[in-house]
Amino acid sequence: MSIEIRVPQLPESVADATVMAWRKQPGEAVSRDENLADLETDKVVLDVPAPVNGVLREIKTPVGQSVKTGDLLAIIEEGAAVTAAAPTAAPPASAPAAGGKAAGPVAAAKTGPAARRVIEENQLAAGSITASAPGGHVTKQDAEAAARASAAPSPAPAAPAITVQRGARTDQRVPMTRLRARIAERLVQAQATQALLTTFNEVDLGAVQELRARYKEAFEKKHGVKLGFMSFFVRAVTEALKRFPVINASVEDNDIVYHEYFDVGVAVSTERGLMVPILRDADSLSFASIEQQIGEFAARARSGSIKLEELTGGTFSITNGGTFGSLLSTPIVNAPQSAILGMHKIQDRPMAVKGAVVVRPMMYVALTYDHRIIDGREAVQFLVAVKECLEDPGRLLLGV
What we know:
A hairpin with a 2-residue loop joins strand 18 and strand 19 (about 355-370). The relative contact order is 0.11. Helix 1 runs parallel beside helix 2, helix 5 (about 230-245) packs across helix 6 and helix 5 (about 230-245) crosses helix 7 (about 375-390). This protein is elongated. The longest helix has 18 residues, at about 205-225. It contains eight helices and 19 strands. The chain is an alpha+beta fold. The protein folds into three domains: about 1-80, CATH 2.40.50.100; about 100-150, Dihydrolipoamide Transferase, CATH 4.10.320; about 195-400, 2-Layer Sandwich (Chloramphenicol Acetyltransferase).
């Protein structure tokens, strides 16, 4: 019995998706609930699970094509068994042409129609193609890679010493992923619609480092997670947001919306681009809960299994360029939010402390904010409040 595989119901606010990859190829066995394909939206990657056991008979939508809810993706033959393809007649024996190309077209039992077309057009030898798909199947991308390799120019003959050989100057055009395109759209929108301004300060993280060193082993043993810097910053930010509610607000038409909750987004870098999962009610979370949630978000964001609802909303964001070595930057607000805090690299620097010059672990912090509703006074005082909480972590426990 043939079963149609269609695009599942896309999340609310997501109009369409792009077929990012097929995890199975025609002729391969599939198990119920096994992922058949990855669908990329502008926020998350969705799985397409197999509804039954059987064999994938036909792929109707190729990689790179846009689809909407209900569109036909593939056909599964329910309960069918995998059957070996009949051997094909061997082509007449002949020496391969220059560059590894065969004298005639190549056919393979584990090669799909698209890949066979590339093989025949480029007269590729079967031995020149490396299969990347499960079960030894040759994909269209495998065949194209082999075609590019076979088309590479042969080394030039040795030239006189006075001759200078230049390497090939090539360009590679790669379409943006949907996530990257969405990030670009939102960043341009934020700069075009908000009056963005950045203020800076620096924080002595000596007290935080001493506290972490003193309790890190006991903390990890009890909670099963390491005590990082991000939990201190999240707690410091929520305390400062309580003092300056406009930093936690947003603009809607001609109104200022003051959010009476603190949903803090923490930027996570992935191969697909930047994602900002949300810590809901961050002011009520313990240090351990913050570290655990951030760790889980980061792992699932990088594996593509994070949920759309975990990326939506948020009243304020934190981004840490220091993990990549950034000493100072001006982050861009994640609209419709009105402010974002940028963390940076911790660097030992000579500082004047009580009349003496001492070396302290310092970090520059930056607050980018929407000047339409946030005045410089409030932005500076907010950043000072964050600084005070971090330089005296006891404030975070006492709420002062």
